[in-house]
Amino acid sequence: MFRNQYDTDVTTWSPTGRLFQVEYAMEAVKQGSAAIGLRSRSHVVLACVNKAQSELSSHQKKIFKVDDHIGVAIAGLTADGRVLSRYMRSEAINHSFTYESPLPVGRLVVHLADKAQVCTQRSWKRPYGVGLLVGGLDESGAHLYYNCPSGNYFEYQAFAIGSRSQAAKTYLERRFESFGDSSREDLIKDAILAVRETLQGETLKSSLCTVSVLGVGEPFHFLDQETIQKVIDTFEKVPEDEAGEAGEAGEGEAEAAVAAAPAEQGGGGAGDQDVAPMEM
Amino acid sequence: MTFTIPIDNGDALKNAETDSQRTLYPYVTGTSIVAIKYKDGVLMASDMGGSYGSTLRYKNIERVKAIGKHSLLGASGEISDFQEILRYLDELVLNDNMWDDGNSLGPKEVHNYLTRVMYNRRNKFNPLWNTLVLGGVKNGQSYLGMVSMIGVSFEDNHVATGFGNHLARPILRDEWHADLSFEDGVKLLEKCMRVLLYRDRSAINKLQISKITEEGVTVSQPYSLKTFWEFQAFHNPTAGAQGSW
């Protein structure tokens, strides 16, 4: 996208019928670190890559509990994401208080989308720079939605947003048809595998990712590091041990990835410096 | 009975208008509602009378109405406040339907919404002068609850309002049991309504029994109960109470 004379205001249309400021806001989502969501008929798993400013700092929180039956993963401007999460929590709790019943996730995302739309039609506002993957349960089962800064929302079986999400999406596209009937464990495994795709060569460790689950009879909660590591261990052996071995199909994959890693990481490091510090 | 709150900002002229907006006493009232859970759902009985003080002025008032797909609302107390509540619920159900998303308000949600409304009005010293009974069935689960004009709210297997609390509930406590058949349920309600007819002066002999099950709502045509007035005790009612008063 190049600069043009129609991109200063969110309330200025371009001659081709585009609102550039809104599209630029969607670019901000692409800069954030990856967030992935997938659902079966009864469960929703949200996973994300933990990115930290530097080795000294802690990583940004990207997955939020909205209610026992709704969770959200964000990518883009985390500050915007936090504010919207607070709004979602507020809506959920108000509904719960008045009706003693959980807010259907489909209605929550419409409220969220309408809120985002307002920012695309006021000259004194700017669009939210964050994409939200909202997973939740309602009467009709488990749902996963993606809310866009443009005010659009879509329902998905599985989706990934943020930087290098295309790799995860490719992985998910190959597998999504089986997700509907997946068991909870398989769904979690697929989520972590999708996260691995976005790391593109970096060894997958439980410290690098955050995973959350919610489902029928299972309120939203985060998986602890141990559980995540156990899942990782089922498909990835520690590279140093395997350096000398050959001939095992699964490990072969990991080896090849490790071999490629040093070259990758050099290029990856330079790329990261272009990312603005407020976007994670 | 008057409800007054001291408004001490000295402007009697302005306050008079706001005072006249608050409900101070009921005018046209309905008497008891009696409701029970039974095998397939909930049964609710009410008579069709509207009293204007001690006059039985209106004899064709429906005090039980269907709400949405899953609930039945019965009210005793001020009829105009009941009508206002029906307007609130109409809007609520309309908005719920407009979502068109497979989710719908069940009896629990309606009951809690009404509890919030009643309690809020009570806090403003402007109550809706009703005791409401909310029954319904959703996803095979039966629900029966009550909200009073001061926002007291609870669920139970059988509820009654007004005089029903004193005359019907003892009968229900003794004779209600889970999984009543429709016929037994109606018999039990008629027994309660007969006692109310004999003893509650604002009751009339024209009642409707409403039923709600997973399939939907049915409201019976109005009918009367057979009464028997030849009990010895009725012949000389003051026989046991000699004295100057």
From TrEMBL, chain A:
Q: Which residues form the Proteasome alpha-type subunits domain?
A: 6-28
List membrane-spanning regions.
none
Low complexity composition bias: which ranges? Answer: 255-264
Pfam families linked to this entry: Proteasome, Proteasome_A_N
The record describes its quaternary structure and partners as: Component of the 20S core complex of the 26S proteasome. The 26S proteasome is composed of a core protease (CP), known as the 20S proteasome, capped at one or both ends by the 19S regulatory particle (RP/PA700). The 20S proteasome core is composed of 28 subunits that are arranged in four stacked rings, resulting in a barrel-shaped structure. The two end rings are each formed by seven alpha subunits, and the two central rings are each formed by seven beta subunits. The catalytic chamber with the active sites is on the inside of the barrel.
Entry keyword Cytoplasm: yes
Q: Keywords of this protein's UniProt record, alphabetized?
A: Cytoplasm, Nucleus, Proteasome
Q: What does this protein do?
A: The proteasome is a multicatalytic proteinase complex which is characterized by its ability to cleave peptides with Arg, Phe, Tyr, Leu, and Glu adjacent to the leaving group at neutral or slightly basic pH.
Name by which UniProt lists this protein: Proteasome subunit alpha type
Q: Family per UniProt?
A: Belongs to the peptidase T1A family.
**Example GO biological process term?**
ubiquitin-dependent protein catabolic process
UniProtKB/TrEMBL annotation, chain B:
Gene3D superfamilies in UniProt: Glutamine Phosphoribosylpyrophosphate, subunit 1, domain 1
The keyword Nucleus is assigned to this record? yes
| Keywords linked to the UniProt accession | Cytoplasm, Nucleus, Proteasome
- Entry's Gene Ontology cellular component terms: cytoplasm; nucleus; proteasome core complex, beta-subunit complex
User: CDD domains from the entry?
Assistant: proteasome_beta_type_4
Q: Quote the subcellular location field of this record.
A: Cytoplasm; Nucleus
A GO BP entry is: proteolysis involved in protein catabolic process
| Name of a matching Pfam family | Proteasome
Q: Per the annotation, which location comes first and is thus the protein's main one?
A: cytoplasm
How does this protein assemble? Component of the 20S core complex of the 26S proteasome. The 26S proteasome is composed of a core protease (CP), known as the 20S proteasome, capped at one or both ends by the 19S regulatory particle (RP/PA700). The 20S proteasome core is composed of 28 subunits that are arranged in four stacked rings, resulting in a barrel-shaped structure. The two end rings are each formed by seven alpha subunits, and the two central rings are each formed by seven beta subunits. The catalytic chamber with the active sites is on the inside of the barrel.
PANTHER family under this entry? Answer: PROTEASOME SUBUNIT ALPHA/BETA
Function, as annotated, reads: Non-catalytic component of the proteasome.
- The family this protein is said to belong to: Belongs to the peptidase T1B family.
* Protein name, UniProt field: Proteasome subunit beta
Q: Which organism is it from?
A: Brassica cretica
